[in-house]
From TrEMBL:
The lineage of its organism: Bacteria, Bacillati, Bacillota, Bacilli, Lactobacillales. It comes from the Bacteria. This is Nitroreductase family protein. Residues 7-180 form the Nitroreductase domain. Pfam families: Nitroreductase. Gene3D superfamilies: NADH Oxidase.
Length: 202
C-alpha cells in the first residue's frame, strides 16, 4: 500500500515557500518522474521547463500577471477583480519553482502520419501522457515532503513564455506545477460515496 500512501500525500498545497533543503534533488526528482512515466508507443511527448530563482519571480510577477491583466481587461472584467487574482499570483510566486509541462506536437503529428489508423487518438493519448507525467512528478515531490499545486494559465501565457525562454513552436503548454516548501497543510478532503463511483462485476 506504499504507493497508495504516496498518492494520499499528493495534495494541492497553496501555502508554499522557498525553504527546500535540497533543490537539486527536487529538480532531479521531477526529471526522473517524467522520464519513467508511460506514453503511447513510448512516444515520450512530454517536455518540461523548470524555472526557479529570478525566473520564478518573472514568470508569476511579470509574465502571468501582465498577460492575465490584459486578458481580463479585454474581457471587460472590472479592475476591482484584479486584487484577488494578484493575491493568488503572489502565492505562486512565493514558491520555490514551477515546472511547466508541454507536449511536443511534432511527435504527435509524426505518429498520426505513421499510424493513420489511430490518427485521431494520438492527441488524446498526448493529453493523457501529460496528465500522467504531471501527477507522477507531483506525487514524487510529495514523497520528498515538497508541496505543489497545479495551475492552467495556458493558453493566455503561451506566447509570452515561449518568447522569454525560447520555447520551440511545436511545444504546446499544458500546465504549470508550482512547487515549494510546505508552509501550511492542505485542508480536509471529502470523497464521494464508493457506490456512486464504482461498478464492480464478478
Amino acid at each position: 500500500m506504499s504507493f497508495i500512501n504516496s498518492l494520499k500525500k499528493r495534495r494541492s498545497i497553496y501555502a508554499l515557500g522557498k525553504n527546500i533543503k535540497d533543490s537539486d534533488q527536487a529538480i532531479e526528482t521531477i526529471k526522473e518522474a517524467v522520464k519513467h512515466s508511460p506514453t503511447a508507443f513510448n512516444s515520450q511527448t512530454t517536455r518540461v521547463l523548470i524555472v526557479t530563482g529570478d525566473a520564478q519571480e518573472k514568470l508569476w510577477d511579470k509574465i502571468v500577471a501582465d498577460e492575465l491583466k490584459a486578458a481580463m481587461k479585454a474581457q471587460g472584467v472590472p479592475e476591482s477583480a484584479w486584487e484577488g487574482t494578484k493575491a493568488k499570483l503572489d502565492g505562486f510566486k512565493a514558491a520555490y519553482g514551477t515546472a511547466l509541462f508541454f507536449e511536443d506536437q511534432d511527435v504527435v503529428k509524426g505518429l498520426q502520419e505513421q499510424f493513420a489508423l489511430y490518427a485521431e487518438n494520438f492527441p488524446v493519448w498526448s493529453e493523457q501522457a501529460s496528465g500522467i507525467t504531471t501527477v507522477n512528478a507531483w506525487t514524487a515531490l510529495a514523497e520528498l515532503g515538497i508541496g505543489a499545486n497545479l495551475q492552467h494559465y495556458n493558453p493566455v501565457i503561451d506566447e509570452a513564455v515561449a518568447k522569454e525562454w525560447n520555447i520551440p513552436s511545436n511545444w504546446k503548454l499544458r500546465g504549470q506545477l508550482v512547487f515549494g516548501s510546505i508552509e501550511d497543510e492542505a485542508g480536509e478532503k471529502t470523497y464521494m460515496e464508493d457506490d456512486d463511483r464504482f461498478i464492480i462485476v464478478k
